[in-house]
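Title: Comparing notes on inverse folding

I've been comparing how different people in this forum approach sequence design from structure. To keep things fair, I'm posting one structure and asking everyone to reply with a full sequence. Here's the target:
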């Protein structure tokens, strides 16, 4: 290893790897895990308000906690991975970066920068998650109430012919695309053992 000048945190100044060596990366990871768990707790346990956010929170609970409709109790086989995976990641981060974290914790500017970056990352992920959910209508539906929506497949590639194949339909009868020539066809592949399909 070359003997370059190092800073008081033990990292080489001016290198890309400095952020990994001086504890800032570990701080960012830990803050991200804390803020992500906070978001999960808000979505899981706060009463869902009316509107799009409430619908999103209800969908989140349904898909991520699989609650029993009668009792309201959650399925812990769904909850445990959401809780244990980040906890293990946090513990490993603490174990690997412990000496660097002790130094980084004495620098308020580093704490503030890492917390802010983590908050922006989690906020962006949460906003993107919300935006992609079914709680938010597509932009085309928001434009003009009462006007017909444009046909969404206008921009699909239709110059390439599909391959010739025959598959059983939901009734077990053989079906091919040739039977539907001139019609719009949507093919869906479903993983048959998924409980949500």
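Reply #1:
Here's my take.
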């Amino acid at each position: 290893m070359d003997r370059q000048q190092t800073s008081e945190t033990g990292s080489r100044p001016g290198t890309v790897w400095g952020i990994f060596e001086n504890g800032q990366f570990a701080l960012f990871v830990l803050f991200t895990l804390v803020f992500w768990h906070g978001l999960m707790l808000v979505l899981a346990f706060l009463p869902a308000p009316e509107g799009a956010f409430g619908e999103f929170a209800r969908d989140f609970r349904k898909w991520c906690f699989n609650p029993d409709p009668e009792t309201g109790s959650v399925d812990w086989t769904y909850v445990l991975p959401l809780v244990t995976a980040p906890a293990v990641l946090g513990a490993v981060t603490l174990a690997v970066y412990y000496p660097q974290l002790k130094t980084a914790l004495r620098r308020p500017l580093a704490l503030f920068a890492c917390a802010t970056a983590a908050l922006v990352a989690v906020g962006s992920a949460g906003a993107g998650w919300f935006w992609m959910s079914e709680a938010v209508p597509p932009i085309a539906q928001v434009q003009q109430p009462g006007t017909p929506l444009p046909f969404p497949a206008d921009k699909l590639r239709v110059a390439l012919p599909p391959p010739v194949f025959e598959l059983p339909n939901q009734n077990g009868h053989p079906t091919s695309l040739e039977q539907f020539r001139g019609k719009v066809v949507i093919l869906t592949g479903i993983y048959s053992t998924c409980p949500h399909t």
